[in-house]
């Protein structure tokens, strides 16, 4: 009985140790295969600015974590991508945790045929949208396309 319990505990510990790594590899593979990695901006030649456009960078760290960096010029932050899935239409659904905001946000990104990227939705974990159906909720203006900057 003790030997069986010991084996069960060892198997459970191995599963706990391996599960985050497998999950991180799947997440990293998803964003890499979809084409998200790198830096993106509305205008790569423009200096990053909160009102005129940020430089957004997605990268895989050596430890396998996927990070999302935002450069607004005067302000910068770095946040972890906690999930990414691709739906049947090719939309990449990304969830990022923002520790300074104490919230997670989910956004949907579409890679266009010309290689540009467009935000289709952006919502809080409470379901409050800032972008919906490819338009800013506050103004109704369509979201601009972003170009790869690297």
How do the strands and helices of this protein lay out in sequence?
Elements: H1 2-34, E1 38-41, E2 55-60, E3 66-71, E4 76-86, E5 92-98, E6 103-111, E7 117-124, E8 129-132, E9 135-136, E10 145-148
Antiparallel strand pairs: 1-2, 1-10, 2-3, 3-4, 4-5, 5-6, 6-7, 7-8, 7-10, 8-9
Description:
β6 and β7 (about 115-125) form a beta hairpin. This protein has an eight-stranded antiparallel barrel. The chain is built from one helix and ten strands. The model is unreliable at about 5-25 (pLDDT under 50). It is about 20% helix and about 40% strand.
Index terms:
alpha+beta
Question: What is the gist of this entry?
Answer:
The chain has 150 residues and is of the alpha+beta class. Helices cover 22% and strands 41% of the residues.
Spans where pLDDT lies below 50 across 5 or more residues: 4-23
Give the number of helices. Answer: 1
N-to-C order of helices and strands? HEEEEEEEEEE
Widest sheet, order of strands: 1-2-3-4-5-6-7-10
General shape: globular
Strand content: 35-45%
Spatial extent as radius of gyration: 19 Å
State the share of residues found in helices, binned by percent.
10-25%
Mean pLDDT: 86
Write down how many β-strands occur, each being a DSSP E stretch of 2 or more residues. 10
Cα(first) to Cα(last) distance is 59 Å
Largest sheet: 8 strands, antiparallel, barrel
Structural class: alpha+beta
């Amino acid at each position: 009985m003790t030997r069986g319990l010991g084996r069960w505990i060892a198997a459970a510990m191995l599963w706990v140790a391996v599960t985050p790594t497998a999950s991180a590899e799947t997440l990293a593979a998803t964003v890499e295969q979809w084409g998200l990695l790198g830096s993106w901006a509305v205008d790569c030649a423009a200096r990053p600015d909160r009102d005129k456009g940020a430089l957004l960078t997605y990268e895989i760290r050596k430890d396998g974590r996927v990070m999302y960096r935002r450069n607004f010029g005067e302000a910068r932050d770095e946040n972890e991508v906690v999930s990414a899935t691709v739906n049947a239409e090719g939309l990449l659904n990304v969830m990022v945790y923002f520790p300074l905001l104490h919230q997670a946000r989910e956004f949907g990104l579409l890679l266009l045929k010309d290689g540009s990227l467009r935000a289709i939705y952006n919502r809080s974990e409470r379901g409050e949208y800032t972008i919906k159906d490819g338009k800013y909720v506050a103004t109704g203006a369509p979201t601009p396309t972003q170009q790869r900057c690297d």
